[in-house]
Amino acid sequence: MPEVIIPGPEGRLEGRLSPAPRPRAPVAMILHSHPKAGGTMNERITQNLFKTFKQRGFLTLRFNFRGVGRSQGEFDNGIGELSDAAAALDWVQSFHEEAQTTWIAGHSFGAWIGMQLLMRRPEIRGFISISPPANMYDFSFLAPCPSSGIIIQGKEDDIVTPSGVQKLVDKLRTQKHITIHHDEIPRANFLYDGEQEALMASVDNYLDMRLDPNSPIK
Fold first, then answer.
1. Please, what are the domains in the chain?
2. pTM of the entire predicted model
């Protein structure tokens, strides 16, 4: 798994890349949780998402937002981190222009950044948002949400509230031309302690459905 240095808006961004296993392989970018709460590209959820996309033949990238690990810069309350994500996706596309589709996945703060990015990048055709912090951040930018995806939430999460996420899901489901899946993991807290297997089963079941050539969701 090559270590990579990505040119970011405030200097280098530290990342890990699983190269494309074949021409025209799809791209997946994984975004970690809040930098000020210990989020890094090496946390369990981020690594597990990285592994599942890699195993499915995606060119897969995870990286540290500015100010995390060896990435340069300072935390910027989401504004700069969105720029970091856009720069990282630009970097991937600079040498893998033939990708047919792109996916974005993230946990909490990373889910919030990822869903902002998909509003700006029409090549992103699917998303996995784990515990999107709808009770903490404004998600009204999803007007309308341009892509289908899945939102996963732990029912025992006392940081990102299930009720806040449910309101977001209900709002997105009023939109036409996209399909929003919603899974709740019954015993899961914010970090999915003891429930990582259930979390990744939800992710894998969704990817099995979406990546099936006969899937009705494109």
1. 3-211 (3.40.50.1820)
2. 0.97
